[in-house]
Amino acid sequence: MNITLRQLQVFLTLFESRSFTATAAQMHVTQSAVSKMVAELEAQLGFALFDRTSRRVEPNDAAREFRGYAEDIMASMQAATRSVVELSSLARGQISIAASPLMIYGLLAEPIARYRERYPGIRFELHELSTDEAVESVRAGRVDFGFGALDSEVPGVEEELVFRDRLLAVVPPGHALAAGKSGKSVRWADLAQWQHISLRRLYSVRRTLDMVVEHEGVTLPSQIEAGTLTAALGLARAGAGIVVLPGYAAEIARGWGMAAVDIDSRPRQIHRVCLIRRKSARPSVAARSFLAELLPVLRAREPAARGGAGR
What we know:
The protein is of the alpha/beta class. The chain folds into 3 domains: 5-83, Winged helix-like DNA-binding domain superfamily/Winged helix DNA-binding domain (Arc Repressor Mutant, subunit A); 92-163 and 273-301, 3-Layer(aba) Sandwich (D-Maltodextrin-Binding Protein, domain 2), CATH 3.40.190; 167-269, Periplasmic binding protein-like II (D-Maltodextrin-Binding Protein, domain 2), CATH 3.40.190. It has 11 helices and 13 strands. The chain starts with a helix and ends in a 10-residue tail after the last helix.
């Protein structure tokens, strides 16, 4: 068997596009070259990968099974190539990270800026994604690593807890929950009396909140569900409701002139942020170097590390 990386790349592109014409355009080759490479791959494997009609190409069960292995091979080769290029004292290189927009804003922005001061040749590629999307990007090898929290085990990826944060209630300026609450916390029963801006369950923040309110036995009324944390903050700032967020996001809200109120702090109300990596993958030199500097910074920022709420 003599399968080439080019054949695998054509296979993966055709799997996504379902079109020989589109695949040829993306790969900058002729349509006949695409057909030939797919046919050669199928001949070496000993089975068909696509069901062909006059108008469309559909992956079959064999293709869906083979896809994961092809992605692993391509991701490993891409990582290996990057590592070789980046061995020259981090003079060049790229780090790809998947995380939610406010996680990038609230947790990663400053460490990235400090890292680039010392290594200006390193290019950061930031993918602002939901937790589910970040996990899939890591699994497929499209990014070096991601941040979020898994609800259950996902084949091909592993997680490591790197940061814990307390939950806070973000309210617009002058809100009754913020009045006279300096240094104090509100109860979940207090929050249940107000309309909330909720986030979709694509985000680990929403999943954390759902578990907490279920344990507390309260219901947080909500008539608005937002797709991003920035949208939720904008709605809360406009007075459409309050929003419960982790501390790293609440710090940004304060910068926007809003108030962030502690919520009856207990260990079970901790929001977990995990480093998500592809199993058996060897990160590039730049990715390993950045993580070696980032993780101690995150752990030092934990409320528990500072002796604050959330212990």
